[in-house]
Amino acid sequence: MRFGVVVFPGSNCDADCYHVVDQVMGHPVTYLWHGDKDLKNVDCIILPGGFSYGDYLRTGAIARFSPIMDKVVEFGEKGGFILGICNGFQILTETGLLPGALIRNPSLRFICKDSYLRVEQNETPFTGKYQSKQVIKVPIAHGEGSYVADKETLEKMEKAGQIVFRYSTSQGEITQEANPNGSARNIAGIINEKGNILGMMPHPERCAEAILGGEDGKLLFESLINWWQGGKA
Amino acid sequence: MFKAVVTINFKKSILDPQGNAVYKALKSLGYESVRDVRIGKHIEVNLDVETKEKAEAELKEMCDKLLANPVIEDYYIEVSEVEA
What we know:
The complex is a heterodimer. Chain A is globular and about 45 Å long. Chain A has helices at about 15-25, 65-75, 85-95, 150-160, 220-230, and strands at about 5, 30-35, 45, 80-85, 100-105, 110-120, 135-140, 145-150, 165-170, 185-190, 195-200. Chain A is built from 5 helices and 11 strands; from the N terminus they run E-H-E-E-H-E-H-E-E-E-E-H-E-E-E-H. In chain A, about 25% of the residues lie in helices and about 25% in strands. In chain A, the strands form 2 sheets. Chain A has a 9-stranded mixed β-sheet, with helices on both faces. A two-stranded antiparallel ribbon of chain A has the order 5-8. A 3-stranded antiparallel β-sheet of chain B has the order 2-1-3, with helices on one face. By secondary structure, chain B is an alpha+beta fold. Chain B has a single domain, classed as 2-Layer Sandwich (Mth169, Chain: A), CATH 3.30.1280. Chain B is elongated, with a radius of gyration of 16 Å. Chain B has helices at about 15-30, 50-65, and strands at about 1-10, 40-45, 75-80. The interface of A and B includes residues 58, 101, 105 and 146 of A.
């Protein structure tokens, strides 16, 4: 499975994503420059974390109009796999590929810590290797990660099983205290209706090796590659 | 030449964390009369177009595309003629 990591001016998790695909998963990966229009024939695009275009105007708002993004949107609409992490999630909501928006944390603080997530949906290409309701530990690092959407959209996503990760306690309880950023319904990650585009605020690429304190994020990459290989067989 | 002033605010249904923090600060300064604070954006755009209508139409398009996010924000455009 060939991966492409988009590099925007201000991306800062691009090298981490590249490293995980290349060194941990052992799959081919290439950088995709924001100013290019060539997706280099990849099978999955990763929109990495960071502060694209300095977060000017709104997070992800300007990145959304990078030359490469037209191609990324087209790729996603055709069913290509896209994984948006942190700033990548913000960009996906700005493009409209995922519903809702991410706004400033109510605490007004940049929060950088481990968070517990409950896997709400393991019947996706990105989460097949997780157990249903499994609790995983994945770090978050953002100032604008509070997920908002209107009630209708939230209800629709709940019904369609599009809510993939929720912030929880280490025991898997969905509580106000376990919600670090005031996200609606503790939402940490969502998927589109078709199931090929996942956006999440936590960073699975930062916990894909034991030496970094955890491997819970590795399963996400494993799930995707497994799905891809199964699909091909 | 026209000058457009765009005011962008969170929709009423969206919690405004900055406005909320300033609200609390004003209260703590003793301004008991304060009932609500909302913080938005103020954007000035100068345009070289023929008519005011054209300026307004262009600005509306810019807001829908980039300047505002319709999922969370409302915008208000005010256009006036200025000397080139």
